Amino acid sequence: MKKRDVYIVGVGQTVISKDAGIRGRYLAREAIEKAVTKAGIEISDVTMLVVGNMMSGILANQQQQGALVADVVGLRGIEAATVESACSSGASAARWGVMSVAGGFHDTAIVCGVERMTHATKEDTTAALATAADWELEGCYGESFISLNAKIMRHYMDTYGVTAEDFGHFAINAHDNGMTNPHAFLHKKVDMETYLNSRMLVDPVKLFDAPPVCDGSAAIVITTEERARALATDGRPIIKIAGSAIGTDSLALQAREDKLFLRGAALSTERALQQSGLHRDDMDIFELHDAYTIITSLSLEAAGYAERGKGVHFGKEGEIALTGSLPLSTMGGLKSRGHPVGATGVYQLVETWLQLAGEAGENQVPNAEHALVQNIGGTGATVVSHVLSRVS
Question: Is 87 known to be catalytic?
Answer without folding.
Answer: yes
